[in-house]
Design goal:
alpha+beta, four-stranded parallel beta sheet, eight-stranded antiparallel beta sheet
Length: 419
């Protein structure tokens, strides 16, 4: 293979390691979070052609400087790899500066949920009714939203990630109070909101790898509990067990669902210029069977999802995806036949972790495929967002009822306790 160049936005060890082993030249961009929290492997950094550092991927001045340095040194990346929410806009800006021909709205629409829903709706993709709130203190705008939407509604940042700073609001009266006192997580820069009508039904996520617009793997999973219900479950005691996770719906047992979701995904991909990417799409299946699009990200799902994908793909999911996107080639994976899913061991109440599951007891669980602790005793868990991970688990079983029973029993037995 001829030596090719990748411009990679943000640190991910397995991706960097895989691309280096494939012989790619890497120009790597790290932000303060990467340096201070992720603590990149110095050995791998030394093997990169160049390592740029920015305060934040929101800094256009620093990103412009990176593009300028690449241009004056005659470097034209063959691939720009952005695998997180917070580097999507930066990657799109760098693509524009470096003259790569893409839809210039693509990365903006993949971050701003209002623009995303507008673009996909043009392709006939069903979305919940929604309104934009640029300023939560604008009383006339708030009154207009209250008059136009049916309650309950969901309030979330237009540039949010996961369920960070997301609220379910039951009535117009409560909506006014929420807007008056709405607070944004410090990680979010934009202070604009999207307010959309609440959808009742089963919450699905779809994880796929696309090469040339064709799905290389395509898995539909169902959440045990909706992401919003988890945010509402912060109780005053540790005796409540939240089942924070999802399980793969086998294609062989849900052909029609797979057909309809594939059709919806194809329209989403067409509207957002998604052809070579790993994606994580979320949608609701209502009680009458209608599919309502929620959002899509051009990245791998978070939490337990990479570990579930690794089990299905037969290797590290990050390495598999990086290799496929870099080379444009991927093996054919058979449809899953064993029921597979993952959990995040979520405590019932915010606080400092006082007890984690016993490793020996966890590893003795029949059907366990992976156990990945994320936090330690003493760490603070706030439960203000769906992604305050504690420990990830991958489980398998021969039937769906067996899997559901195993997941419930596991979450009850192996607890994360806080105080």
């Amino acid at each position: 293979m001829s030596r090719q160049t990748v411009l990679m936005c943000k640190w991910q060890r397995d991706v960097v390691d895989t691309l280096l082993q494939l012989g790619y030249t890497i120009h790597l961009v790290l932000d303060d979070f990467d340096v201070q929290v992720e603590r990149p492997d110095e050995r791998l950094l030394e093997m990169c052609a160049k390592v740029y550092r920015v305060d934040s991927f929101d800094s256009h001045e620093q990103l412009t400087g990176i593009a300028a340095d690449l241009i004056v040194n005659g470097v034209r990346p063959d691939l720009i790899f952005a695998h997180t929410e917070f580097s999507q806009l930066a990657a799109g800006y760098l693509e524009t500066l470096l003259g790569r021909p893409r839809d210039r709205l693509r990365h903006a629409a993949l971050r701003d949920k209002r623009l995303m829903k507008t673009v996909v709706a043009r392709e006939g993709v069903p979305v919940a009714s929604w309104r934009s709130v640029v300023d939560p203190t604008d009383t006339a705008l708030i009154a207009d939203v209250r008059a136009r939407l049916r309650f309950p509604v969901v309030v979330k940042p237009a540039f949010g990630v996961g369920t960070t700073s997301t609220r379910r609001v039951a009535s117009p009266e409560e909506f006014g109070r929420v807007m008056e006192h709405y607070t944004f997580d410090p990680v979010l820069r934009s202070r604009q909101l999207i307010v959309e009508e609440f959808i009742t039904g089963r919450e699905l996520h779809v994880d796929a790898l696309w090469l040339g617009g064709q799905a290389q793997f395509f898995l539909i999973s169902a959440y045990h509990q909706t992401r919003l219900s988890l945010l509402d479950s912060d109780e005053a005691a540790n005796d409540r067990v939240a089942l924070d996770g999802s399980y793969v719906i086998l294609p062989g047992k849900a052909r029609e669902l797979y057909r309809r979701v594939a059709d919806l995904h194809a329209r989403v991909n067409g509207s957002l210029d998604i052809s070579n990417a790993v994606t994580h799409l979320e949608a609701f299946e209502t009680t009458d069977g209608e599919l309502i699009f929620s959002e899509v990200a051009a990245r791998m799902g978070g939490g337990w999802i990479p570990h579930v994908l690794s089990e299905y793909l037969g290797g590290n999911a990050w390495a598999v995806v990086a290799s496929a996107l870099a080379t444009g080639q991927a093996p054919r994976w058979p449809e899953p036949t064993v029921h597979l899913g993952g959990l995040n061991l979520r405590p019932a109440v915010s606080g400092h972790i006082t007890e984690l599951p016993d490793n020996e007891s966890v590893m003795a669980t029949p059907g366990l495929r992976a156990y990945v602790p994320v936090r330690s005793v003493g760490d603070l868990v706030t439960l203000r967002q769906g992604a305050d991970w504690c420990a990830h688990v991958v489980l398998t079983a021969e039937s769906e009822p067996e899997y559901l029973a195993l997941a419930n029993a596991f979450a009850r037995r192996h607890r994360v306790l806080t105080a």
